[in-house]
Amino acid sequence: MFQQSFTPAQLARFTRRTAVLVGVVCGLAVSTEAAASCQYVISNEWNTGFTGSIKVTNSGTAAVTGWNVSWQYAAGDRITNSWNATVTGANPYGATNLNWNGAIGVGQTVEFGFQGTKGGTTAEKPVVSGSICDGATSSVASTSSSSIKSSSSASIDVSSSSSVKSSVPSSSSSVKSSSSSSIAATSSSVVATSSSSSSKSNSSVVTSSSVASSSSVKSSSSSVTSSVATGSDWLHVEKNKIVDANGKAVWMTGVNWFGFNCTERVFHGLWSAHFPDLMKSMADHGVNTIRVPISVELILEWKAGVFKAPNVNTYANPELLNLTSLQIFDRTLELANANGMKILLDMHSAEADNSGHVYPLWTHGKFTEEDFYTAWTWMAERYKNNDTLVAFDLKNEPHGKPYQETEFAIWDNSSSSNNWKRVAQETATRILNINPNVLILVEGVEAYPMPGVPWTSRDVHQYYSTWWGGSLRGVADYPVTVPGHQSQIMYSPHDYGPSVYDQAWFYAGFTMDTLIKDAWYDNWLYIHDKGISPLLIGEWGGFMDAGRNQAWMSDLRDLLVKKKIHHTFWCLNPNSGDTGGLIGYDWTTWDDAKYNLVKPSLWQLNGKFVGLDHDTPLGSGGLSVNQYYANGGIEPIGN
């Protein structure tokens, strides 16, 4: 059974000092007409620490091509973490731009942030000094880059692209199989297209006959326009709620549909099912969110304009004839938009591999950390005006056992290459600088050390362990922090039952209360209950065994309903090896018993399902967000 994971001593182990900045000097690589104002901001403060940022605004008449800042603390205060800049030194500190945020156009602002510890009661808000920061013009910054290098201590650089050695874990947490048995063979030849992009309006109806002529997009990497017009359905978080632009709560309740992450590079089932019919069927059954797994490899192929033939039965889907996987993804957004649904994109693996999710980190094979960032920022740019693609789940199931394996994900404030919190924070920052409206979901890790135990310990008894991606214990001490965009950050654990792996908490007679006590609360439920952030259970599901697994599913479902926790059920696909799916192998017939278990956890009012579009109802007989509230719906807020 699990113990309480966070003691006062643990909470205090990293937050002991306050950052008191006595001076910040801005230096920039500028022309003689360049000038900048530098603003210091405290974004959050608690008893032992704070987060802050420095904003550099080009107030001159010429572009800035690079920037640096430096500062020094008066006493023993220190920076513990930073983002959006390369930070060096150990008092004095220096920070320089990254390769993607060095240029500042006239009137534009760049911002980098940091987290610090304080020894006093209040974080200081210092005056930012320096000739450029004061608004003067100069051909050379008054503080040269050499002053930044005056300290010889190690760099704190959250933009590292170093790769990690790979090893296949022997996890006790069994993973879902996405085998593709009975899949029609397709050509592995590489094709490229150059058809022009055509956009679509937010129509409430899209017919299959319209697809072939209007869904094509540019295949080159220069194409960054989504195929669904800009709308007003963007979401953000307020404490433990997801709310719309009007501050009204919504409830994301949906399902996973995998395939784009696999070698087929497209949804599984399109070798059989008619795409528009299956999308409509999901909406009619109350699915308002589809979590779509994908891979770094596929996105980088899209970016390069090279496309491997997707596995599609064009007899069942004649409108998909000659379309690339990217065009089919765009078609997914069109169909979701027409049916009142939203898409949650999940980076499931580095490689386009049916078993790619077994590798513990965001890097694998030839794909580096920088590739991971590149894939996400390309998607963010391409779909930044498309409010059907409403959320990004940064990485599926970071995992690994520190006490047993050589490759594993950790969660702390270090600059370690395997620190998932660092990479998640950097990825979120880059995405939100492009699209400040998209929701960012951060999953957990597999194991977390007990209070006072270092990540180097090889003693299994010194760790709390759970499902892959299921431990968010580190959020209590080390939250993912993106100043200026915190309203887009939320967390997404995964949870499974004994049919996947018989964890210690599945003893005879377990109940919802024992599951909360033994596993759920300390791993993730505290985040919701304390109002830190909303939760979206990205994966939960399993076989209907009329036994313990079904009891676990019912208990978790009841918790989701009681607290209105967001979720996407695993999965639609019947070919998930250790969970099964919501539909049969004909990709048409729904498993009524399993669906009826899930059904109470889908957002509805008076028997009508509720979508996430403000104007388009969900499916044939559902409601839009506006209709829900117009018909007396109350905010879906649990207790």
Tell me the layout of helices and strands:
Layout (H helix, E strand, L loop, with lengths): L7 H5 L8 E9 L6 E10 L3 E10 L7 E8 L4 E6 L2 E4 L3 E4 L12 E9 L10 E2 L15 H4 L7 E2 L32 E2 L19 H4 L21 E3 L2 E3 L5 E2 L2 E4 L18 H10 L4 E7 H9 L2 E2 L16 H14 L3 E8 L19 H14 L6 E5 L26 H15 L4 E4 L4 E3 L13 E3 L23 E3 L20 H18 L6 E2 L10 H16 L2 E4 L22 H7 L5 E2 L2 E2 L15 H6 L9
Parallel strand pairs: 1-9, 15-16, 15-25, 16-18, 18-19, 19-20, 20-23, 24-25
Antiparallel strand pairs: 1-4, 2-3, 3-8, 4-7, 5-8, 6-7, 6-10, 11-17, 12-13, 13-14, 21-22, 26-27
Structure description:
This protein has 639 residues and is of the alpha/beta class. 19% of the residues lie in helices and 19% in strands. It has helices at 8-12, 145-148, 211-214, 275-284, 296-304, 325-338, 369-382, 420-434, 512-529, 548-563, 592-598, 625-630; strands at residues 21-29, 36-45, 49-58, 66-73, 78-83, 86-89, 93-96, 109-117, 128-129, 156-157, 190-191, 236-238, 241-243, 249-250, 253-256, 289-295, 307-308, 342-349, 389-393, 439-442, 447-449, 463-465, 489-491, 536-537, 566-569, 604-605, 608-609. Strands 23-20-19-18-16-15-25-24 form an 8-stranded parallel β-sheet. A 6-stranded mixed β-sheet has the order 9-1-4-7-6-10. It has a 4-stranded antiparallel β-sheet with strand order 2-3-8-5. Helix 5 packs across helix 7 and helix 7 runs parallel beside helix 8.
